[in-house]
Amino acid sequence: MRRIVLVGSPNVGKSGIFNQLTGRYAVVSNYPGTTVEISRGEMMLEGELVEVVDTPGTYSLLPASEEEAVTRRLLWQEDADLVLHVVDTKNLEHSLSLTFALLEAGFRVILVLNMFDEAERFGFAVDVERLEERLGIPCAATIGTSGWGVEGLKEAVRKELAVLHAEESAVGGGFAFPVQTGGKRRGRKLVKYPLQIERLLTAATGSMKGQYPFSARTAALLLLVGDEEVASWLHPRDRRSVENISKGIPPDQVILSVAAARRKAAQRLLEGIVRKPEAAGAGS
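RESULT FIELD:
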């Protein structure tokens, strides 16, 4: 059974999208070893059942809470055929940092611009087609509370899974990790990090021999910022090689540099695509 995972920060209406996709029936349970709840349901797509998983709210693949840690563990440990990154359209610029992180990690992503009516009511205007072109991934405008736009989202999901099926068929059905299709298929570098960070990532990625659910670039980046949980998931040889390359580089410096680069990339990407309330009013 295919698996779709919903990811997004708190209060973006993920549960509404989940309910619209699954018909409101869900199994809610604690993620193993935690008290954090995960919702699982199913949707029918062209006669086949597809599992839909709703994860706890998260802002980043570098967790700052148990809820965020559970979401990342789920993405690492369970094969996600497709990730729906649900965002509050009003906060699109801030939310793109996680979109970039998911794409860098190699996941096949659809960006769900939820609460679209609220954004319009506040005076935001978003050119969804141009956003798709610049990001290189499908984008769907939705209102989770009413179901507006959900049929378009389902169609985007159908197309993405059809592409995935075609890619798997072309390689004999071998599909081990998301990075083998989603990230490389996009092939678009959206964030340019400072030269020192880029050199570190290039060296670290080149030294890693293992194959993991996240791309080598993302695994290396998380090691550079001192992520002990990810370090425990990697082969000791890869862990040692990255640690040797990154000696003397303060993790906080990497975190700040990455955050600034993603913020700048989001601002640049949205130029001419999003009109904020004051700009929308001035142009009317």
